[in-house]
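Is this the right way to post structure tokens for a design question? Let me know if I should format differently. Anyway, here goes:
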């Protein structure tokens, strides 16, 4: 079983990203479990969502994810306010929505880093506004490339099934991020 923890802010589509990614994994033959954790439920407040995947066994665990294998950071500003690596297993991936690599990489020692400018990709596809880009589908494409699973076609299908508006633009955002994700 692999566990993924998402860190985002209310209104970015963090929960929908975890649900859509779970659907993509389910459609590709995995057992999945996903659920959000909210503090203050308002736009801009920190949000966490969890995803568990297993290629062979049902998932019976019913707790938060305390020791994730991988982390998805929807807002790079969260890197300065919370410890996104808390409990992260050594060698795990950290996918960050940012233009540039964080200046202080010492806190990421022992982890692999992938970077995607999901905000710019979202805006170039007409998703959200300059002050509030909707980045979730771009992050899904970057995640699929980073992990080499699930296949991008399953990501596209999940977006078409789960995203209520601008489906074509959201699929394109996922494809763009899949092609542009950078690895450190």
């Amino acid at each position: 079983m692999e566990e993924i923890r998402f860190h985002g802010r209310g209104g970015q589509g963090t929960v929908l990203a975890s649900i859509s990614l779970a659907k993509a994994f389910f459609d590709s033959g995995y057992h999945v479990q996903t659920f959000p954790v909210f503090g203050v439920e308002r736009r801009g407040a920190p949000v966490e969502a969890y995803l568990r995947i297993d290629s062979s066994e049902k998932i019976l665990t019913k707790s938060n994810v305390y020791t994730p294998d991988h982390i998805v950071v929807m807002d790079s500003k969260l890197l300065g306010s919370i410890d996104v690596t808390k409990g992260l297993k050594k060698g795990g991936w950290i996918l960050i929505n940012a233009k540039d690599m964080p200046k202080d990489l010492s806190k990421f020692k022992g982890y692999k880093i992938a970077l995607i400018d999901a905000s710019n990709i979202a805006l170039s596809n007409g998703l959200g506004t300059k002050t509030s880009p909707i980045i979730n589908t771009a992050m899904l494409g970057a995640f699929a490339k980073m992990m080499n699973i699930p296949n991008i076609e399953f990501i596209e299908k999940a977006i078409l099934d789960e995203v209520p508006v601008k489906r074509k633009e959201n699929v394109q955002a996922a494809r763009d991020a899949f092609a542009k994700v950078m690895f450190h």
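Format looks fine. Someone answered above. Worth noting: The domain at 2-183 is CATH 3.40.920.10 (Pyruvate-ferredoxin Oxidoreductase; domain 3). Residues 64 and 167 are 31 Å apart (CA to CA).
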